[in-house]
Amino acid sequence: MLESDNFVVREYFRKMIGEEGMKIMENVPEGEITDEEIAKLSDTKLTSVRKVLYTLYENRIAEYRTERDDNSGWITYLWRFNYDNIKKVMEEEAKGILKELKSQLEDERKGVFYQCECQRALFEEAAAKDFWCDECSSKFEYVDNRDLIKELEEKIEEIEKWKKEIKKG
Ligand SMILES: [Zn+2]
Q1: Ligand 1 mean position, distance from CA 122 (Å)
Q2: Domain range holding 161?
Q3: Cα of 123 to ligand 1 centre, how many Å?
Q4: How high is the pLDDT of residue 111?
Q5: Domain end: 50, 82, 114, which one?
């Protein structure tokens, strides 16, 4: 069970596995457990449990090992959970988003942009076409991107804040 009191972490987890997933994972004790036992504990369909397990596995929060019954050849999957990895997953996601936003911000700050009716182009590209787009037969007009830059700066600030919140608690 996820013990974190950190609101940001809990919300992220809720988004990852959904409301039903939260209910399913609520009653899962520490240690190893099979999907069937989880289904019984939460009184849910096995397919729903497996869906949640798969999502958690993809995010490296759940892992399993298999045990083979020598007589029947039956394979049992024993699951265990590492909730500490949620923060790692979140930090990686924040890092990835920040990298993208910062590089976009840099492009916007460096470039001078023009826009026709079908596309946005750098000054150099628009100038090379004599500020006329043959594709849509319209003029390339100067674009003021100050609002976009401000928007990007605000988004970056927001993600930075979110990243700090992850570390708390
Ligand atoms: Zn055009």
Answers
A1: 13
A2: 87-167
A3: 14
A4: 95
A5: 82
Answer yes or no: is 78 within a domain: yes
- The Cα 128–Cα 119 span in angstroms is 15
Stated pTM of the model: 0.76
Identify the segments of the chain with pLDDT beneath 70.
1, 169
How far does residue 124's CA lie from ligand 1's centre (Å)? 15
Instruction: Tell me how far the alpha carbon of residue 148 lies from the centroid of ligand 1, in angstroms.
Output: 21
Q: Both tokens of residue 82?
A: 């590492």
Q: How far is the CA of 120 from the centre of ligand 1 (A)?
A: 8
Residue of 113, 102, 109 lying closest to 155 (CA atoms)? 102
Closest CA to 167 of 106, 87, 69: 87
Alpha-carbon torsion, ordered 64, 67, 68, 74, to 10 deg: -60
Question: Amino acid identity of 147?
Answer: D
pLDDT tens for each residue of 19-37: 999 999 988 998 999 999 9
User: Are 43 and 12 a contacting pair, CB within 8 Å?
Assistant: no
Is 107 found in the same domain as 74?
no
